[in-house]
# Entry
Amino acid sequence: DAHLKKAASHTFGSSGHYPVEMVRSALRRGASQVDIHLSAHQLQILDNGPGMDTAAIDTLITLMDPTQPEARKEEAVESIQTREGMGLLAVFAANPDEILVENVTPAGSLRLHLKKNQFHKSPAVTSTLVGTRITLIGGHRDINQEKVLLEAFCRSVRQEVRLNHRPLGGHPFLSGQIASAPLSPSKYASGGQIGVPQNGSICHIRLLDQGIPWHHFTLPPQEGYIFDAAVETTEEATRELIEHLCRYGYSLYRWLGNRYTGTDPVHRERIEELLYTHCRQTHDETLVLQYARFNLFDTAGTLDLGQVRRKAAAGSLYAVPRGKEHLSYHTAHKT
# Structure
């Protein structure tokens, strides 16, 4: 169908992304287990959720049945061009030669079959107690890209998701952090994770739906804090959400400061960088005064910022950039 092809090409940034949306749709329906069987000729996704609701089934029938009025088909296509409807649109994205949908609910079972423009509806014959099985045969597919995207997007799903019998989920939302914390459920997010990265000077924020990313954006340091966040939410990011994340950022910076003296020297340099970035951007010296240290040249001793300032005011302070000891100089200015 021309309308479906156009809608799919506009909705999915990659032609191999549609299986990800089918998995997300299964998780939205309440599935705790999703099995993906992927081969060169067929894609099958089976879940143990409560089954598709009546509205979703009616939409599929409208789109699969060639005898349905064109105006009704156009309305159905329009209704699934949303993030909530992507799971249904994904069924048609690869223009499969054959579509088989088997849906079992406590109220009954249904089998929808479309092949060569012939549509059949009948009771489903399956051993599945409840759940949905969608089988797509043929079509224009890139199996390697589909595998790569499924592995990348579903790596942090908490439910049991298997690709050709191999588990996909269970990995942390974030990696490469020197400190991290879970996001408690709130009016801004239903969960997720926030962390302070080992490297970098910008904030990376990923919005998740069912543990699967749907939006990723970057920001400069927020309120002086550098953090990565994976936020479970179906809403667009707002200023209130960013401020909420900054409150977590403050707690993580305090946590790092409290452990400054006992941490690995490599992480200590990163903590210093983070604290001074925060101070420069906000002119708030609280964290720097409490935690930052300056190493004394050729000794194991350190000075805090207050001590450095007193020595500078007294007119005798030698500052040596780390790693460039040969460039030592004398200053009586505030440091």
About this structure: Residues 331-335 have pLDDT under 50 and may be disordered. The chain has ten helices and 17 strands.
